[in-house]
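Researcher: Structure for this, please.
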Amino acid sequence: MDKESLLKNIINNRSVWIILAGFLILISFGFVFYKYKSALWELEKVKALAGKAVPNENEELIKKVGKLIELPSGTPVIATVSNLDQLKDQPFFSKAKIGDKVLVFMEEKKAILYDPKSNKIIDVAPVSVPTLEATGSAKIEEKLTPTVKAEVLSQKYKIALYNGTSVVGLTKKYEEEVVKILPKVEIVKKADAKENYEESILINYSDLKEEEIGEVSKTLGIKVGKLPEGEKELEGVDFLIILGEDKDDKGV
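Model: Predicted structure, token format:
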């Protein structure tokens, strides 16, 4: 084979290898591009599912609890009971179990203890939550401290309501407001007072201490007083509330 033919063969073989190498490189880039696009498609699918199909757990929890009880206003801070030892001295958590949820409504300082497994409200009570606004939900259990107010207002009471105004239906309206603050209250009697009164009066028939009665009075926004002359003494109740004109358009 002469030199010219040998040179042509070398050039032709080199061209073949260059074309083959280019073809392989093209295939490699195509494969990488396909994998890249596939990864992007999968990522978009995951984002779409996360945005549409996966519900917000807190929103679902609030909806479930809202079907069982009328919720206070505002968005609650939600915590999970994870350490009963830290809560054993607090009456509010006496029936709590690991995994129970606590919904704390900061505006009204009210807490709801909810069992998600049985879908039941375990307890509802006012709470004192120091520096709650700066506290995350993970630490909220540590801030739920028992107070005289929480213990007193979480008890069961029998209350009689007297309408000491000329406003029709005031006792019914006020009953709805009281139940929001004292969830375990029982209104055993509603009637009209003998006279009209400018200010509402809270008459105590319970065995509560003076400090405890003061908490009830402060929460309801009604001063403690004696039964006015002409009004009949009651039995079988813890409190008599005579609604005055100061409550005719303000509620609790």
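Researcher: Any notable elements?
Model: The chain has a mean pLDDT of 76. Helices lie at 3-52, 57-66, 140-143, 148-153, 170-181, 210-220.
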